[in-house]
Amino acid sequence: MHEMVKGSNVALAALSENAGSLIVSLSWVSPTGEGDADVSVLLLDANGKVRSDSDFYFYNNPVAADGSVQLLGKTPTESGDEDRISFDLTAVPPGIDRIVVAASRYEGAGFGELEDLKVTLADGGGESLLRFAIDDAGTVGAIIFGELYRRGEEWKFRAVGQGYDTGLAGLATDFGVDIDDDAGAEEALNGAESSEQADTAVPASAVEQEPPVAPGLVPAPRPPGDEVGPKKAARPRTAKKKVTVPRVARKSLADNESWKQARLFPVSVLKSDRDREMRATSVLLSVMAQVPEFGRRLTAAFGAPAGRMETFTEVSLPHGDTPRRPDGVIRVERAGKLWTALVETKTNGNDLKPEQVQAYVDIAARRGYEAVITLSNDVALEGSPLVDVKIDGRRKHKVALWHLSWAEVTHQAQMLIRHEGVGDKVHAWLLQELLHYLRHENSGCHGFQNMGSAWVPVRNGIDDETLCQGDLRALDVVESWERLIRQICLSLGGELGQKVLPVQRAKRGADPKARRSRLADQLCLDGRLQAELRIEGAPGILAIIADLRTAKLRTSIEISAPEQGYPLTWAKRLIRRLAEAPADLHIETLVEGETGGPRGTLERLRPEPADMLPKNNDAHITGFRLSLFKSMGSSRGNAESGFIRSVDDAVHRFYTTVIVHLDPPTPRQASAKERAGAG
Asked: Model-level pTM?
């Protein structure tokens, strides 16, 4: 991999023959597990400006109509987040000279609070090309990580690392984006920023560039506003209205509930695993080809270009004496060039067969295909591939092996039709039919739903205290737990239309397998499985503890105490906010320097909020911990009495009955030192 330093540049063609399609990944590590940032992309002409607002891509305008840019969203890593962007350089309009890749923080936060900031590039085959690490971020609210630019007929990448004190709104304005001032749109664009002041501020760091970044322009500062309520989403003025499916279904015209609505994709005739695999593959691939937004969203992450897509099933391909029949083929045509991926599908919890996947990789390599995509109910983990295949290093043509879970397919479909919208009503209807099919009990596409064969022996070993550190069965359970948590994030995120990501508190550069081994040893010692979820818009981290000794699940959140006011006022306000929360909700007051403060159930504290306060009037209250407890399912599967179902229900119940009633997070106040430095 090519390592870059600030200000350096490199020709992409010198790094890969397949650089027309790129995946650019921006990543960072939050020591607290709560830090986050959003990526943005600006397409600039020869004057260093966007041609119109539609050349500015961010979280509320993630996809270019021509397929040249697509923000793929966040992927959790072992120690933080990785935000990926797909570029099809062959589709970039001729009038675009530069593509700026940036990231920004919100609510007054700076990049100095994050660690291990870096940008990496991979080609269409998934091969890593380069990396650029930023070591001097400082307190800036936005950073240009790098830029892609033309030199004649080729594209180059420049490592920039330029910071902006003025955040995303200032950076966007600097490059000619017309920020909409209607109904608080600008505040939503950059957390809680306002454009009412016009003091000047110089970027935190500047680099001599070729060509220079926004020469002669100084972004205007935009100080934080005081609004803490929900923000209205900003949208470029040129954005096209999209269609979403109504949340409340229309009244049925059926005489009674026994009438079943006619469906485009019937499931009643499915009787065998083979039938399920064939039907699921055909249903998915046909919808991908007919709904461009959906097909592009799934394939862009695999390095596919934007273009005309056709999909096929049960294709026969020669392989020795016996031809092979992959479950499906995806083919995308762009500017006369073809991108091809073979698809191998499994349903109903069936495992992928390594020898089968290996054969498809070999066929793809010989025929010049770009990828093999596996699709099953299982969830892939970083550093732990579902299927190990051997890659012949002597072959010049490389084949990328990707995995997609049915839970991810469901998540992406739900995000489009429920929250983001698609191009027309027919597309929305097709996605709705796909969702109905995937969720039907007979489809076999229900996601991860089995904790594995090690689950019962591990639970028994914890009960009778015979489970020893180093037992590989404990490692299997830890990996299954991590898969379950990732699937719960997809499910909850699809329902809310918000980012839900697992928090991985690990040291920088920690090996994923070594981390899981430590967690397995810890499971043997205390009999607990633990996880944390970061939910966009929530005032804290949602923690989950599954205690296998007591068969209890605990879901909880810690919220900070207000910076102003009196403790009794805080307690009364919290009780009022939780008026509709479950009566058995446990509330614990967190006191500085003490392991535990006053605690009680909501039912007991409602008439006497003062019982939440410590007896020592000098004690400093730092916050409150809210917790719900429930019994844990015993079986390893996803049945009503199963462990997986119980964890999923616990998380959804805690969010819908507790977190939704809490005050949204307030903007972080600058410290006296930061205010003095700004002055």
From this structure: 0.71
